[in-house]
Fold each of these.
Amino acid sequence: MSLVSIETLIKGAISGNLVSFPTDTVPALAALPQKADLIFQAKRRSPDKPLILMGATPASLWPYVRGSDEELQLWQEVAQKYWPGPLTLVLPASEMVPREMNPFDPTTIGIRIPNCDIAREIMTQTGPLATTSANFSGQPPLGRMAEINAQFPDVLVLSHEQEIILASGVPSTVAKWNEISCWEILRQGAVKLKF
């Protein structure tokens, strides 16, 4: 496939195809949550490495997590402070999360809102998408849409060259909520969480 327009990419994603578009960190390889197995296959990714559920708005993501009212309020306060932006929150998963998103540990889900207008515009129309960096597993993330198109010829890749300006190239910080009510940093990225 060749580079495609945003309209073609959105239609393709809704139809269950793998797509790729810029984000505020690195370009994403994305699919509907129930089609997440396509990402694992395309990337040759081990199923013990979960995907991130990315959305256009916090309201679109909260149904995918479960917690007490107090926990939800705390998580929403953190999200309000750092979203949109390069912070992934790993939280207890609700029954809405398909097992394909996290085959080895379906009890948690990483969620994020990117600080990238194009990505949010796409997900406003597709709904939240299963995402990860666009590259073969173990390889450096690809930074240009043309490179992604060459490496993943079966993926609908957005025709957009502004991603060089949009993307930091630094992955998101990943913070996991644990049972003793505090955050554990699984990967330090651009965001420094203040506790």
Amino acid sequence: MKSFGSVLTAMITPFTETGAVDYQASAQLARHLVTHGSDGLVICGSTGEGAVMTAEEKLKLFATIREAVGPEIFLVANTGSNNTQQSVAFTKEAEKTGVNACMAVVPYYNKPTQEGCYQHFAAIAQSTSLPIILYNVPGRTASQVTPETIARLANEFSNIVAVKEASGNLNQVSEIARLCPEGFLIYSGDDSLTLPILAVGGCGVISVAGHLVGEQLNQMVTSFLAGDVQKAQQIHYQLLPIMKKLFFISNPIPVKEAVGMIGLPAGEFRLPLVHANEKEKEFIREFLNAYDLC
């Protein structure tokens, strides 16, 4: 299968001072990202504070961003949750908004068995014709889907075509690449591990740093895939400090603060997330200045 792009940025969601979704600011930011290195966007994921948005807000945002960036940009709607029935129903509604794919996280809090994970993703796959990206992020979910279960799903459902791997475990990524059918797409879910994941079979990154250094990230991935490993390594080493510092406190707080500091629409947070304190903001300004971003 052809890749969906090298860099899919997991976009933040700007909120107004009254707590509403700022659709105009979201459209503006989306247009900026796709002209600065992002091949596509993931909407309402963890970085987009999707867990505190209503279904109606998300659907409107999917449609708003589709209109803002045009039909050629690859859009992924985060439609998964820890409730299988709700995930199925919401995926069906998201498909109507014009997105190109959906992303479904391993059910959090419930801690399902591997059979439970299989049944959860199978139900979502059977509900839609959209391509599905599985999202493995044990640091947030307290459980994970194994390479064996991913391979079972990929072999049985033609629309389960990719995984966002944020386990931090390169052995696991290698096993996914070894077990899954040819053409199954593996996206890094950690910016700083993108290059190592490319080396064991990955195709790109679903990125947080893409908000700030999307063009450089894209160049790194395309350089590696074109065989210029040395160039890819140089870019990796240049970007490594900022990729790591963007996670010094809970994502998306640092990146959302940084986006605002460089003059792009970032907006407010929704509780339980809050703005960085003054010491944390100064740390963010320092690494932005180090990269001549503000």
Amino acid sequence: MKLDIIGDIHGCYEEFTLLTEKLGYSWDQGYPLHPAGRKLAFVGDLTDRGPASLAVIETVYLLVKKELAYYVPGNHCDKLYRFFLGRKVKIAHGLETTVAEWEQLNKKEQQRIRRMFKELYENAPLYHILDNQKIVIAHAGIREDYIGQYHNKVKTFVLYGDITGEVHGNGSPVRRDWAKKYKGKPIVVYGHTPVRNVREMNRTYNIDTGAVFGGKLTALQYPELTVESVCSSMPLIDEKFRTFDTETAKNH
């Protein structure tokens, strides 16, 4: 199994296109296809904040439908799904950009996008266990004792990380550094928390390098465990990136 696992895209479609081309994918068919049969995988948070969330939805939907990619939902995906169900959600923290894009469409196109995303979300597992349990892809990561479980605590963990229920002064949730304590055998690839460079810790890889905050869009190649990135076209928002006391960074 050969994968190119892409971090949180957040509507950065241009960077997504450039990154897949850099990885050797051709867009001649209108979607990224690798001549050697490699597949893409996505750690969630396809939408919100960036300029072209709907184009990302369409491409990922098509790839998953054609069995050319793997997708797991992120917390932003979960919120957009609830919006499309007609539930009461706060249209903020990036969702407003996706909703604004969607509202510009005619009714028929709105229904098409809504149906497409609902199908993508509803058919996605909470996390993927792949390659004979050698690798797990989960949006915000996963504790080793949760692998193979699918209850509500697991859902909260994979969507939001190891949250304590407390908040920082800026309103962001307090999260424990679960990767520091990870002792599982499978490699875990995740995103959710923007970091400057891929954070490698105890066989876990955080590949959200903050594309929508002016960082990079990054892919981790498996099984090679090499990193490819493209620079973001978005303005840099320095305070959105998390730093850790001790870490090993892979930087390309």
Amino acid sequence: MTLESFINEAISPWMLEDGPDKDIVMSSRVRLARNFADKLYPTSGNKEALEEVLQFIKKNYIKEEDTEQDSLTFIPMKQLNMIEKLVLVEKHLISPHLIKHSDYAAVLLSEQEQTSIMVNEEDHLRIQVYYPGLQLKKALEEAYYLDDWLEEEADYAFDETKGYLTSCPTNIGTGMRASIMLHLPALVLTKQINRLIPAINQLGLVVRGIYGEGSEARGNIFQISNQITLGKSEEDIVEDLESIVNQLVEHERMARQYIYEQSEISLEDRVFRSYGTLKNSRIIDSKEAATCISNLRLGIDLGIIENISENILNELMVLTQPGFLQHYANKALRSDERDIRRASIIRERLNLKK
């Protein structure tokens, strides 16, 4: 695979597949943080050590002959310009943090973009696996498989008492972050989300926006993940998170039904106004676009609007981000120029209706 194949399409192939509760649960992700026992951690900032890790990865895991992992493509960050890096961040294939050590960082990507292994991020390895819908257990199984494959050629930093050793103390133990991305427009509209988030936090989970820590929950999209990595097994963490998410899904479904029954005309008006805005705007900022796309998706899920695929909406959520807009323009754009191009792309994609 080439870099172009990863940055030219806004929607990853795995996102086109079906999954449990996919109308509400957009994705499941498991991320494992691992470090090599005999090498300085990336947070040390030692360039020689960072380069050493890169060379170790290239020597041991990037092979010409067929292997079980021959579909992984090695992409050094130093070969990418800033816009290309932003595109990979917007597709959740790399983290913003990986760009900080871009001269000595890389990512291994699978053909379906379901697997992403970041090299020299905060830890030597950040293994990420995605699945559509609520499929955390499947994601964990695949992450285990990749973890075992990587460990065949390396000794991990591991302590019998503390577990896997990581750059940040909050990841020590399992080194695992399991997260679910949810679309919760009805809970936002009914304001139930305001009481649910504090309750979720008290259960040892954290609620963030679409791009993780420090990001805003635009488009009514929330990311829920575990905070505790020490003292519980990976399976228990996943089980607890899935249990909470199942309850959230049930609350969202009930809220959607309540809104539809109690305020059908108002809901339809919100959906069709958003549809009209998206189809006709000549300039639209990212926040308004995300809100309108969320409303339109809710209308599709409830059967208010037909003949539009939810995949187009998934695509638009990424396609309208700054990195993608500038990538397709093939140049850097001012904020107002991005707003104009965003409106144009949305109009073009909605006219396809497929």
